[in-house]
Amino acid sequence: MLRKIKCITVCLLMLFVVIVGGCAPGDKDAGKAGKETIKIGQVPFEHEWIPVNIIKRVAEELGYSTEIKEGDVGIIFLGLSRGDIDIYPDVWLPTVHSSYMEQYKGQIELVGTLYKNAPTGWAVPTYVDINSIDELKGKSQLFGAKIIGAEPGAGMMEVSRKVIKEYGLDYTLVEGSTPAMLATVKKAIQSKDPIVFLAWRPHTMFQDFDIKILKDPKNIWSVDDARNGVNPGLKEKAPDLYKFLSNFQISIDEIESMMVEMGKGEKVDKLAEKWINNNRDKVNEWLGK
What we know:
Layout: H1 2-22, H2 25-28, E1 38-42, H3 46-61, E2 66-70, H4 73-82, E3 87-93, H5 98-103, E4 109-118, E5 120-125, E6 146-148, H6 155-167, E7 172-174, H7 178-190, E8 197-200, H8 205-208, E9 211-213, E10 224-230, H9 234-237, H10 239-247, H11 252-263, H12 268-278, H13 280-286
Parallel strand pairs: 1-2, 6-7
Antiparallel strand pairs: 3-10, 4-10, 5-8, 5-9
């Protein structure tokens, strides 16, 4: 009798193992077997949240799990060079991020071009009677001797320090955040006060405010192209996603249009999904389907 009970117990245990094994996630998600997590870098600039979320969704469609790693630009580039981050879709060259690319030379690969000819520089409201950076010299009191900047590690901040030095300007570059900068700009414009600040596209600031980018006779600023920065190991880790990144393009106007929608409360992941659905033929072509 005891032997019979033991036999039944063993059979029930074996049946349990078979049932649990058959329901295990590994079998259910067999299509994702062997695919690693794709880590995408993201900084506090809203324009880049759009390509980040498009890439995230495409990666998930390809069967990868994804993780968005947030941080300052300097931290993102460090993580990209070490493999802690796989993709950072916002490397601006030849100007804004040149110092980071030089610092991590050979440790970061550039893949594809998201969009071209993105303007960057310093801007003033159109009511300010100055049109060029060199005209700022000797007029620091008019602007409180300040250039209103953004996040300390931003590439544009690094370029701004060089501009101040090259033009011999007696101004302080104010560190802060993009929202704080824009709040200061809004307040100044409401009071018709002179102000100099960082400006770039894609961004809604050119729609929100009547502003102009100052000319740069020394050509320190230039129009930049936005590239995908990837860790060199990505091509082997995710060859299908690497192929997509090599071809992926989105216009400045498209990004700004979606940023306007974000300002109205639309979620960036839903906007990314909508963009993919509206451009499905292109996405499939970029994937080689």
